[in-house]
Specification:
By secondary structure, the chain is mainly alpha-helical. It has 11 helices and 3 strands. One of its GO terms (cellular component) is plasma membrane.
């Protein structure tokens, strides 16, 4: 009797992740797609971190930030993808209350940290291109560590506030989350609490996270473009634009999807799931490809590592 009571209580506190509303036979296709993308995320980001840590030539502020970007991408995609794949593969779509809290907390922490880290990377490129002679002094190791630590700290504070605020809501109407992971907006939809204050605080949090970081990025790149256009060397212009365009591409995809998910009114749940894919899986998969295929130093370091392995074999 005690076991049955415990089981019933567990079922009452579990959430159900609906995932994508597709025919059951397509679930295996979604599983294989997620598996392929997640494998590319693991390979790309672990590979990028390995290359950066093993090659002394990449011991610079830019690659320090890139290594942390790969770590963040790897971590928050790992918070989402494995659980989603389990839901696609098995008939069980449930996630425990503690699991849901943990998933939301970790995802919010790392997605916010990535936003601040991208702003730090934009500032780094601004100093490197606009003030190259002062770059070694201004972008010191101490400042780089402070910027990265600050990104994680802001992510942690934001995540604590968001998670604690979300899970003080009452979920008496339903425990079925119309999404493939635990996120704030889908949880709001199934809450029977008054959401007015919750939405105000959420919008405020989005504002103080998105606005400062996007302003730093835009202003930095306005100065960068102005400086690059004044360069006499066409090769220098090409190299600068190549480095910065890849960063801007990542920023555009990430922030475009986040604005759609958290700023625009929540009227299209299925489109929200597609937008979520952009920053939970697509961006972490593309980041290593963009920064390695368009980066001469990374490609040379990778060739060096692969060359050593071939020789040892």
């Amino acid at each position: 009797m005690g076991d049955r009571g415990t089981s019933n209580h567990s079922e009452e506190t579990d959430f159900i992740l609906v995932g994508f509303r597709v025919r059951p036979e397509l679930h295996i296709l979604l599983f294989l797609l997620f598996l392929l993308v997640y494998a590319m995320i693991l390979l790309g980001n672990v590979g990028m971190m390995t290359v950066i840590m093993t090659d002394p030539r990449l011991n610079t502020p830019m690659y320090f930030f890139l290594g942390n970007l790969s770590f963040i991408d790897l971590f928050y995609s790992s918070v989402i993808a494995p659980k989603a794949m389990i839901s696609f593969w098995s008939e069980s779509k449930s996630i425990s209350f503690a699991g849901c809290v943990t998933q939301l907390f970790l995802f919010a922490l790392f997605i916010v940290a990535e936003g601040f880290l991208l702003a730090a990377m934009a500032y780094d490129r601004f100093i490197a291109i606009c003030n190259p002679l002062l770059y070694p002094v201004q972008m010191s190791s101490r400042l780089c560590i402070q910027l990265v630590a600050g990104s994680y700290f802001c992510g942690c504070i934001s995540s604590v506030l968001q998670t604690s605020m979300t899970f003080t809501l009452s979920f008496c109407a339903s425990r079925t989350i119309d999404h493939f992971y635990c996120d704030d907006r889908p949880l709001q939809r199934i809450s029977c609490s008054d959401l007015y204050l919750h939405k105000i605080v959420s919008f405020f949090l989005c504002g103080i996270i998105i606005l400062p970081t996007i302003i730093v990025i835009i202003v930095s790149y306005m100065y960068i473009v102005s400086t690059v256009l004044k360069m006499h060397s066409s090769e220098g212009r090409k190299k600068a634009f190549s480095t910065c365009s890849s960063h801007l591409g990542v920023v555009s995809v990430l922030y475009g999807a986040i604005v759609f998910m958290y700023v625009i009114p929540d009227r299209f749940p299925e489109l929200s799931k597609v937008a979520s894919l952009c920053y939970t899986l697509v961006t972490p998969m593309l980041n290593p490809l963009i920064y390695s295929l368009r980066n001469k130093d990374v490609k040379e370091a990778l060739r060096k590592i692969l060359g050593k392995k071939n020789i040892s074999i």
